[in-house]
Design brief:
The protein is about 30% helix and about 30% strand. With about 325 residues, it is an alpha+beta fold. Strand 13 and strand 14 form a beta hairpin. The model has no long low-confidence stretch (mean pLDDT about 90).
Protein backbone atom coordinates (compact mmCIF):
# COMPACT_ATOMS: atom_id res chain seq x y z
CA UNK A 1 0.00 0.00 0.00
CA UNK A 2 1.32 3.43 -0.94
CA UNK A 3 1.86 5.74 2.03
CA UNK A 4 0.12 9.14 1.72
CA UNK A 5 2.18 12.26 1.13
CA UNK A 6 2.86 14.42 4.19
CA UNK A 7 4.72 17.54 5.24
CA UNK A 8 8.50 17.41 5.50
CA UNK A 9 9.56 16.75 9.09
CA UNK A 10 11.86 19.29 10.72
CA UNK A 11 12.63 16.96 13.62
CA UNK A 12 16.20 15.71 13.37
CA UNK A 13 16.62 12.19 14.72
CA UNK A 14 20.01 10.68 15.50
CA UNK A 15 21.06 7.06 15.05
CA UNK A 16 18.73 6.33 12.15
CA UNK A 17 18.88 5.26 8.52
CA UNK A 18 16.34 6.96 6.26
CA UNK A 19 15.75 5.24 2.89
CA UNK A 20 14.53 7.43 0.03
CA UNK A 21 13.70 7.34 -3.65
CA UNK A 22 13.62 9.95 -6.41
CA UNK A 23 11.54 8.10 -8.97
CA UNK A 24 11.75 10.86 -11.57
CA UNK A 25 15.53 10.33 -11.63
CA UNK A 26 15.48 6.52 -11.18
CA UNK A 27 17.54 7.01 -8.04
CA UNK A 28 17.40 5.39 -4.63
CA UNK A 29 19.52 5.76 -1.57
CA UNK A 30 19.81 6.27 2.15
CA UNK A 31 20.75 8.99 4.62
CA UNK A 32 22.52 7.97 7.84
CA UNK A 33 22.74 10.07 10.99
CA UNK A 34 24.93 8.86 13.87
CA UNK A 35 24.91 10.66 17.22
CA UNK A 36 25.06 8.94 20.64
CA UNK A 37 25.86 5.59 19.00
CA UNK A 38 29.10 6.73 17.32
CA UNK A 39 29.96 8.95 20.30
CA UNK A 40 29.77 5.96 22.65
CA UNK A 41 31.88 3.76 20.37
CA UNK A 42 34.63 6.36 19.90
CA UNK A 43 34.78 7.49 23.51
CA UNK A 44 34.98 3.90 24.71
CA UNK A 45 38.07 3.30 22.59
CA UNK A 46 39.62 6.73 23.26
CA UNK A 47 41.63 6.68 20.04
CA UNK A 48 43.67 9.68 18.82
CA UNK A 49 41.45 12.21 17.05
CA UNK A 50 42.48 11.31 13.45
CA UNK A 51 41.85 7.61 14.12
CA UNK A 52 38.45 8.35 15.66
CA UNK A 53 37.45 10.40 12.62
CA UNK A 54 38.51 7.66 10.25
CA UNK A 55 36.69 4.96 12.21
CA UNK A 56 33.54 7.11 12.28
CA UNK A 57 33.73 7.41 8.48
CA UNK A 58 34.11 3.63 8.20
CA UNK A 59 31.13 3.04 10.50
CA UNK A 60 28.98 5.45 8.48
CA UNK A 61 29.92 3.78 5.20
CA UNK A 62 29.21 0.34 6.67
CA UNK A 63 25.72 1.42 7.72
CA UNK A 64 25.03 3.08 4.35
CA UNK A 65 25.85 -0.18 2.57
CA UNK A 66 24.79 -2.75 5.16
CA UNK A 67 21.36 -1.28 5.79
CA UNK A 68 20.24 -2.63 2.43
CA UNK A 69 20.03 -6.05 4.13
CA UNK A 70 16.63 -7.24 5.26
CA UNK A 71 15.63 -8.27 8.77
CA UNK A 72 18.65 -10.50 9.24
CA UNK A 73 22.16 -10.70 7.94
CA UNK A 74 25.55 -9.23 8.66
CA UNK A 75 27.69 -6.71 6.82
CA UNK A 76 31.36 -6.25 7.61
CA UNK A 77 33.71 -3.53 6.42
CA UNK A 78 37.42 -4.18 6.91
CA UNK A 79 40.61 -2.48 5.81
CA UNK A 80 44.15 -3.82 5.98
CA UNK A 81 46.86 -1.44 4.91
CA UNK A 82 50.45 -0.32 5.38
CA UNK A 83 49.63 3.16 6.68
CA UNK A 84 49.60 4.39 10.27
CA UNK A 85 46.09 2.90 10.67
CA UNK A 86 46.74 -0.73 9.84
CA UNK A 87 43.18 -2.02 10.25
CA UNK A 88 39.60 -0.83 10.54
CA UNK A 89 36.86 -3.32 11.35
CA UNK A 90 33.15 -2.47 11.44
CA UNK A 91 30.36 -5.01 11.96
CA UNK A 92 26.77 -4.12 11.14
CA UNK A 93 24.21 -6.71 12.22
CA UNK A 94 20.95 -5.94 10.43
CA UNK A 95 18.71 -4.26 11.09
CA UNK A 96 20.32 -2.11 13.76
CA UNK A 97 23.43 -3.22 15.67
CA UNK A 98 26.79 -1.55 15.12
CA UNK A 99 30.26 -2.12 16.56
CA UNK A 100 33.71 -0.97 15.39
CA UNK A 101 37.41 -0.93 16.23
CA UNK A 102 40.74 0.24 14.79
CA UNK A 103 44.35 -0.87 15.06
CA UNK A 104 47.12 1.61 14.48
CA UNK A 105 50.74 2.59 15.07
CA UNK A 106 50.47 5.25 17.79
CA UNK A 107 53.89 6.77 17.06
CA UNK A 108 53.17 6.98 13.32
CA UNK A 109 49.79 8.62 13.93
CA UNK A 110 51.31 11.15 16.35
CA UNK A 111 53.97 12.08 13.77
CA UNK A 112 51.40 13.02 11.10
CA UNK A 113 50.75 16.71 10.44
CA UNK A 114 47.48 18.21 11.68
CA UNK A 115 44.48 17.82 9.40
CA UNK A 116 45.90 14.88 7.46
CA UNK A 117 43.42 13.09 5.19
CA UNK A 118 42.12 9.54 5.33
CA UNK A 119 44.38 8.46 2.47
CA UNK A 120 47.53 9.28 4.44
CA UNK A 121 46.21 7.39 7.46
CA UNK A 122 45.39 4.27 5.45
CA UNK A 123 48.20 4.12 2.90
CA UNK A 124 48.20 1.19 0.49
CA UNK A 125 46.28 -2.01 1.10
CA UNK A 126 42.69 -3.08 0.55
CA UNK A 127 39.12 -2.42 1.60
CA UNK A 128 36.82 -5.45 1.84
CA UNK A 129 33.04 -5.69 2.13
CA UNK A 130 31.64 -9.01 3.37
CA UNK A 131 27.91 -9.77 3.21
CA UNK A 132 26.47 -12.72 5.15
CA UNK A 133 22.74 -12.83 4.32
CA UNK A 134 22.11 -15.52 6.95
CA UNK A 135 20.26 -18.81 6.62
CA UNK A 136 21.39 -21.08 3.80
CA UNK A 137 22.49 -18.23 1.54
CA UNK A 138 26.16 -17.93 0.61
CA UNK A 139 28.46 -15.22 1.88
CA UNK A 140 29.78 -12.67 -0.61
CA UNK A 141 32.92 -10.59 -0.44
CA UNK A 142 34.02 -7.65 -2.55
CA UNK A 143 37.50 -6.14 -2.42
CA UNK A 144 38.94 -2.88 -3.74
CA UNK A 145 42.53 -1.65 -3.58
CA UNK A 146 43.53 1.22 -1.31
CA UNK A 147 46.09 3.31 -3.16
CA UNK A 148 46.31 6.38 -1.01
CA UNK A 149 42.66 7.42 -1.39
CA UNK A 150 40.04 7.75 1.34
CA UNK A 151 37.10 5.48 2.11
CA UNK A 152 34.61 7.55 0.13
CA UNK A 153 36.75 7.37 -3.02
CA UNK A 154 37.45 3.66 -2.47
CA UNK A 155 33.71 2.97 -2.26
CA UNK A 156 33.16 4.76 -5.58
CA UNK A 157 35.90 2.65 -7.18
CA UNK A 158 34.34 -0.53 -5.79
CA UNK A 159 30.90 0.18 -7.23
CA UNK A 160 32.36 1.23 -10.57
CA UNK A 161 34.50 -1.88 -10.98
CA UNK A 162 32.66 -4.61 -9.08
CA UNK A 163 28.96 -3.81 -8.95
CA UNK A 164 28.63 -1.69 -12.10
CA UNK A 165 26.03 0.41 -10.28
CA UNK A 166 26.40 4.18 -10.69
CA UNK A 167 26.86 5.29 -7.07
CA UNK A 168 27.69 8.44 -5.15
CA UNK A 169 28.56 8.37 -1.43
CA UNK A 170 29.16 11.32 0.90
CA UNK A 171 30.64 10.91 4.38
CA UNK A 172 31.10 13.52 7.10
CA UNK A 173 32.38 13.45 10.69
CA UNK A 174 32.52 16.19 13.28
CA UNK A 175 32.01 17.14 16.89
CA UNK A 176 29.28 19.18 18.54
CA UNK A 177 29.56 21.22 21.72
CA UNK A 178 26.74 21.38 24.25
CA UNK A 179 26.33 21.97 28.00
CA UNK A 180 26.94 18.22 28.37
CA UNK A 181 30.35 18.45 26.67
CA UNK A 182 31.82 17.55 23.29
CA UNK A 183 30.20 14.72 21.35
CA UNK A 184 31.09 12.96 18.11
CA UNK A 185 28.68 13.00 15.19
CA UNK A 186 28.76 11.38 11.76
CA UNK A 187 26.53 11.34 8.71
CA UNK A 188 26.36 9.95 5.22
CA UNK A 189 24.37 10.06 2.01
CA UNK A 190 24.17 7.30 -0.61
CA UNK A 191 22.63 7.75 -4.05
CA UNK A 192 22.42 4.94 -6.63
CA UNK A 193 21.07 4.91 -10.18
CA UNK A 194 18.66 1.97 -10.40
CA UNK A 195 16.41 2.34 -13.46
CA UNK A 196 13.91 -0.38 -14.33
CA UNK A 197 15.60 -1.00 -17.68
CA UNK A 198 18.91 -2.94 -17.38
CA UNK A 199 20.09 -1.25 -20.58
CA UNK A 200 20.04 2.12 -18.85
CA UNK A 201 22.40 0.80 -16.15
CA UNK A 202 25.14 -0.08 -18.64
CA UNK A 203 28.54 1.42 -17.95
CA UNK A 204 31.49 1.93 -20.27
CA UNK A 205 33.88 -1.02 -20.29
CA UNK A 206 36.94 -0.62 -18.08
CA UNK A 207 40.30 -0.33 -19.82
CA UNK A 208 41.79 -3.86 -19.80
CA UNK A 209 45.29 -2.39 -19.89
CA UNK A 210 46.42 -4.52 -22.87
CA UNK A 211 44.34 -3.16 -25.74
CA UNK A 212 46.21 -2.92 -29.07
CA UNK A 213 47.62 0.52 -29.97
CA UNK A 214 45.09 2.71 -31.69
CA UNK A 215 42.08 1.00 -30.13
CA UNK A 216 39.24 3.46 -29.61
CA UNK A 217 38.02 3.38 -26.01
CA UNK A 218 34.44 2.29 -25.46
CA UNK A 219 32.54 5.51 -24.84
CA UNK A 220 29.11 5.25 -23.24
CA UNK A 221 27.62 8.56 -22.10
CA UNK A 222 26.06 8.72 -18.66
CA UNK A 223 22.29 8.69 -18.44
CA UNK A 224 20.90 12.23 -18.16
CA UNK A 225 18.80 11.32 -15.13
CA UNK A 226 21.83 10.00 -13.27
CA UNK A 227 23.89 13.04 -14.22
CA UNK A 228 21.24 15.23 -12.63
CA UNK A 229 20.78 13.05 -9.54
CA UNK A 230 24.53 12.81 -8.97
CA UNK A 231 24.98 16.55 -9.43
CA UNK A 232 22.26 17.31 -6.90
CA UNK A 233 23.55 14.79 -4.33
CA UNK A 234 27.11 16.04 -4.73
CA UNK A 235 26.11 19.49 -3.49
CA UNK A 236 25.59 18.07 0.01
CA UNK A 237 27.96 19.78 2.42
CA UNK A 238 29.63 18.16 5.42
CA UNK A 239 27.84 20.35 7.94
CA UNK A 240 24.45 19.36 6.48
CA UNK A 241 25.14 15.69 7.16
CA UNK A 242 25.98 16.19 10.83
CA UNK A 243 23.88 19.21 11.80
CA UNK A 244 21.52 18.09 14.62
CA UNK A 245 19.15 20.95 13.73
CA UNK A 246 18.71 19.77 10.11
CA UNK A 247 16.54 16.69 9.69
CA UNK A 248 17.35 14.03 7.12
CA UNK A 249 13.99 14.69 5.48
CA UNK A 250 14.69 18.41 5.21
CA UNK A 251 18.11 17.68 3.68
CA UNK A 252 16.56 15.41 1.03
CA UNK A 253 13.90 18.03 0.32
CA UNK A 254 16.65 20.61 -0.26
CA UNK A 255 18.36 18.31 -2.73
CA UNK A 256 15.48 16.80 -4.67
CA UNK A 257 12.22 18.69 -3.98
CA UNK A 258 11.94 19.88 -7.59
CA UNK A 259 11.95 16.26 -8.73
CA UNK A 260 9.83 14.80 -5.94
CA UNK A 261 11.50 12.68 -3.26
CA UNK A 262 9.89 9.90 -1.26
CA UNK A 263 11.12 8.80 2.15
CA UNK A 264 10.37 5.45 3.73
CA UNK A 265 10.18 4.18 7.27
CA UNK A 266 13.42 4.99 9.13
CA UNK A 267 15.46 2.27 10.80
CA UNK A 268 16.97 2.80 14.25
CA UNK A 269 20.65 2.13 14.96
CA UNK A 270 22.32 1.12 18.23
CA UNK A 271 25.74 0.51 19.76
CA UNK A 272 25.42 -3.23 20.45
CA UNK A 273 28.19 -5.84 20.56
CA UNK A 274 27.59 -9.47 19.71
CA UNK A 275 30.05 -10.78 22.28
CA UNK A 276 28.67 -12.89 25.15
CA UNK A 277 29.86 -15.09 28.02
CA UNK A 278 28.50 -18.12 26.16
CA UNK A 279 30.52 -17.38 23.03
CA UNK A 280 33.72 -16.86 24.99
CA UNK A 281 33.11 -20.01 27.04
CA UNK A 282 32.77 -22.03 23.83
CA UNK A 283 35.97 -20.45 22.51
CA UNK A 284 37.91 -21.35 25.68
CA UNK A 285 36.67 -24.92 25.53
CA UNK A 286 38.07 -25.20 22.00
CA UNK A 287 41.59 -24.11 23.06
CA UNK A 288 44.29 -26.69 23.83
CA UNK A 289 44.93 -27.04 27.62
CA UNK A 290 48.38 -25.44 27.38
CA UNK A 291 46.92 -22.30 25.78
CA UNK A 292 44.29 -21.98 28.51
CA UNK A 293 46.94 -22.36 31.20
CA UNK A 294 48.96 -19.55 29.60
CA UNK A 295 45.91 -17.27 29.93
CA UNK A 296 45.59 -17.66 33.71
CA UNK A 297 46.34 -14.39 35.52
CA UNK A 298 47.88 -13.67 38.90
CA UNK A 299 44.47 -14.07 40.51
CA UNK A 300 44.24 -17.64 39.23
CA UNK A 301 41.42 -16.78 36.81
CA UNK A 302 41.13 -16.30 33.04
CA UNK A 303 40.18 -12.77 32.05
CA UNK A 304 38.92 -12.02 28.53
CA UNK A 305 38.23 -8.47 27.33
CA UNK A 306 36.24 -7.82 24.13
CA UNK A 307 38.17 -5.62 21.71
CA UNK A 308 34.95 -4.04 20.47
CA UNK A 309 33.02 -3.14 23.61
CA UNK A 310 35.80 -3.43 26.24
CA UNK A 311 33.65 -5.70 28.42
CA UNK A 312 35.83 -7.90 30.62
CA UNK A 313 34.61 -11.33 31.67
CA UNK A 314 36.21 -13.67 34.21
CA UNK A 315 36.29 -17.47 33.82
CA UNK A 316 37.37 -20.13 36.30
CA UNK A 317 40.03 -22.49 34.85
CA UNK A 318 38.51 -25.27 36.94
CA UNK A 319 35.60 -25.30 34.49
CA UNK A 320 37.98 -26.43 31.72
CA UNK A 321 39.64 -29.67 32.86
CA UNK A 322 42.60 -30.91 30.81
Amino acid sequence: MTEPAREVSDIGYDDVVLPYAVEALSTRGRVVRLGPTIDAILKRHDYPEPVSRLLAEAATLAVLLGSSLKLEGRFQLQTKSAGPVTMLLVDFDAPSNLRALARFDAAAVAALPAGVGAGALLGEGYLAFTVDPGGDLSRYQGVVALEGQGLQEAAHAYFERSEQIPTLARLAVGQSVSPNGVAWRAGGLLAQFLPDSPERRRRADLDPGDAPPGTTPHDLPEDDEWVEAKSRAATTEDHELIDPALSSERLLFRLFNERGVKVFRPKALADVCRCSAERIDAMLQSFPPEERRAMIGDDGMIGVTCEFCSTKRIFDPANYPD
